[in-house]
Write a structure and sequence with these properties.
The complex is a heterodimer of chains A (255) and B (351).
Chain A: E1 9-18, E2 21-31, E3 36-40, H1 47-55, E4 62-67, E5 70-71, H2 77-83, E6 85-88, H3 100-111, H4 126-138, H5 154-168, E7 172-176, H6 187-198, E8 204-208, H7 212-218, E9 221-226, E10 229-234, H8 236-241, H9 243-254
Parallel strand pairs in A: 3-8, 3-9, 6-7, 7-8
Antiparallel strand pairs in A: 1-2, 1-4, 4-5, 9-10
Chain B: H1 2-7, H2 16-30, H3 32-35, H4 39-65, H5 72-90, H6 94-119, H7 124-144, H8 146-149, E1 155-156, H9 178-201, H10 204-221, H11 226-252, E2 254-255, H12 257-260, H13 263-276, H14 281-308, H15 315-318, H16 324-338, H17 342-349
Antiparallel strand pairs in B: 1-2
Bound molecules: adenosine-5'-triphosphate and magnesium ion.
Chain lengths: 255, 351
């Protein structure tokens, strides 16, 4: 029917309320392949909650989520992940007692569907191992590949979080403040990686980010959430110029 | 060396002290009939063998997947009753053993699946309670159906001729008795089962189980259907426990609630795993060995100490053989205190 290809991700009137509090309120928005959309908004605006609805950690109280035109509102997070929705979490969310390499390998292994292999030692799966090592090299963690995740410094944990997402090679990347808490010299590594993904035209990136310089250098488009509602949507320059954004965004920065 | 590594699924014991202890246990069990003559010692060795399997299979749940279940002796019992009742009802033949084992595996896996599907979704504490209730119900059932199971008294049966104590493979001074054959059957079966479990925990699947233990939420976000993985883990652990039960029945030529289903055994397995070290199958080996040895020999050791300290004040009283349970308790408290990560954890750290 549609002449235009379906959006990679589309939400229609997507809402969730916790008790009486509406955290995401009827957000309708489409994200297309080959674009990087930044979602901005003050603390508590509902950005992470919106991500949770898209990747399935939370169930919507109303509205729908479409992935390439198919309704995925009722699917479990694992199904969505296998379909090609990848998520990096704002609060680092790793396997703390497994090594860096194992953390990444688990993601590669999931993508390749090797999880149910019971009878071969994992060391035999050299393809998994090499790919995991490759990704670890990209984020600059090679020197720490055998260290347990919980022993990593915070910045490295953030890098590992990103490495796990890269290992999933999803069609849709959901980055939730990937550089938060990183030291200034670590940030460019992650931004370069995101930039590299962006070069691949069939990938879709949605990025929640507070740092305005990051947003303006990477994003093709900015979506502003405020009190759970989508209040602005457009190209970076015009969105940044809107009074409501100045107010909402600078309001948060002053907190 | 690389063959040994492959047999151990690329996960050899880390650190020399641990490797030495494990080698000693392995040699002790492999040559038990030569090293420790006497039927009593052989009983202990065989018991260690099948308890290693039982404890290791429990660690698959507790240590690797982070699932707390109290139904593990039920699966052990299903194996024991499966083999025992088949031998009793169908006659002492190898095919009875096979049929009994097969039936026990089916029942164990089916039950594990049902328990898992109904209750793995609920909170861990409720899962533990449900397994406790199911295990209890099963044990009452086994006692009540006395015409079928022998009730509280259990059931004594005969083995195929080759395995009977009276059997001699060759006559003369180097006689190979049925008892010896039984022992090696138990030993090698236990060894193979242990190595198989070691393989499973070191497979891609095993890593997913650990991932679920570490962070189920994230495992799900990576695309793993954690329910499926946990259910399979549950079924594998149940199957291994049932096979340990078969081995115990073959060795004891008896099956009954006290030796397979009792809650005491559940606590024993729990202690073996915790003392040896959770999340490492080698911990189950060490835990089971220490536990069975302590349980068997502590009493006589104390009798000896009681004798030796005769005349001294207080000490003989303290070492009275009747107090062996107290000392066992003290030993456990000490070991948990000094080795919070289990004995394996302690031995590895010393490296
Ligand atoms: N599971 C939950 N239960 C109850 N309230 C929740 C839950 N998750 C989020 N909220 C509430 O929803 C609102 C939006 O939170 P959310 O984490 O999505 O904000 P955010 O935009 O990601 O903020 P930040 O910039 O601080 O990360 C907040 O008021 C929060 O308290
Ligand atoms: Mg957030």
């Amino acid at each position: 029917m549609a002449t235009q290809p379906a959006a990679a991700i589309e939400t229609r009137d997507l809402s969730i309320s916790f008790g009486g509090h509406v955290a995401v309120n009827a957000v309708s928005c489409a994200f297309h392949a080959g674009t990087l959309t930044a979602i901005v908004g003050p603390n508590g605006a509902g950005k992470t909650t919106y991500f949770n609805l898209i990747s399935g950690q939370l169930r919507a109280t109303a509205g729908r989520v479409l992935f390439k035109g198919a309704d995925i509102t009722a699917l479990a997070p694992s199904r969505r992940a296998r379909a090609g929705l990848g998520r990096a979490f704002q609060l680092t969310n790793l396997f703390p007692n497994l090594s860096v390499h194992e953390n990444v390998r688990l993601a590669v292994q999931s993508r390749l569907g090797r999880g149910l292999d019971l009878l071969r030692t994992w060391t035999r799966h050299s393809a998994l191992i090499e790919e995991a090592d490759d990704i670890i090299r990209q984020v600059g963690l090679s020197a720490r590949r055998t260290l347990r995740a919980r022993l990593l410094p915070h910045g490295d944990q953030r890098k590992l979080e990103v490495a796990i997402l890269l290992a999933l090679r999803p069609e849709v990347f959901l980055f939730d403040e990937p550089t938060a808490g990183m030291s200034v010299d670590e940030v460019p590594v992650i931004l370069d990686l995101i930039h590299a993904i962006k070069g691949n035209r069939d990938r879709t990136i949605i990025l929640v980010e507070h740092k305005m310089d990051v947003v303006s250098s990477l994003a093709d488009r900015i979506v502003v959430l405020h009190n759970g509602e989508l209040v602005a949507d457009g190209d970076p320059a015009s969105v940044m110029a809107l009074p409501i954004v100045q107010e909402a965004y600078l309001g948060a920065a002053n907190v | 060396m690389s063959i040994l590594r492959a047999i151990l699924s690329g996960d050899p014991p880390r650190g020399r002290p641990l490797a030495l202890v494990l080698t000693a246990i392995f040699v002790g069990l492999a040559f038990a009939p030569l090293l420790f003559p006497g039927i009593g010692a052989l009983n202990v060795a065989a018991k260690i063998c099948y308890f290693v399997v039982l404890a290791a299979s429990y660690d698959l749940l507790l240590g690797y997947t982070g699932v707390v279940s109290f139904a593990h002796t039920m699966f052990f019992g299903i194996g024991g009753y499966g083999a025992g009742l088949a031998l009793y009802d169908l006659g002492p033949s190898w095919s009875s053993i096979l049929i009994g084992t097969g039936a026990a595996l089916l029942v164990a896996i089916a039950l594990a699946l049902v328990i898992g599907l109904f209750s793995l979704r609920v909170r861990a504490i409720f899962f533990a309670m449900i397994t406790l209730a199911v295990a209890n119900a099963f044990s009452i059932l086994a006692s009540q159906l006395s015409s079928f199971t022998g009730g509280e008294d259990g059931c004594t049966f005969r083995l195929p001729e080759l395995l009977r104590p009276g059997f001699r493979l060759v006559a003369g001074p180097f006689a190979i008795s049925g008892r010896l054959i039984s022992y090696y059957l138990v030993f090698f079966a236990a060894l193979i089962l242990f190595l198989l479990m070691l393989r499973i925990v070191n497979s891609p699947f095993g890593r997913v189980l650990q991932a679920i233990r570490e962070n189920e939420f994230r495992a799900e976000a990576l695309g793993y259907r954690t329910m499926v993985y946990r259910s399979i883990g549950n079924c594998l652990a149940a199957a291994a426990a049932a096979l340990a039960g078969v081995l115990s029945a073959l060795w004891l030529r008896y099956t009954g609630p006290a030796v397979t289903l009792s809650f005491d055994i559940m606590l024993d397995i729990l202690l073996m795993v915790v003392i040896g070290g959770m999340g490492t199958l080698y911990g189950a080996v060490i835990g089971a060995t220490i536990f069975v040895l302590a349980e068997t020999y502590l009493q006589s050791l104390m009798a000896a100490l009681n004798h030796a300290t005769e005349g001294l004040p207080l000490l003989p009283l303290l070492f009275h053989p009747d107090r062996w349970l107290l000392w066992l308790g003290v030993l456990f408290v000490l070991s948990v205190y000094f080795f919070p990560a289990g004995i394996v954890g302690g031995l590895q750290k010393r490296r």
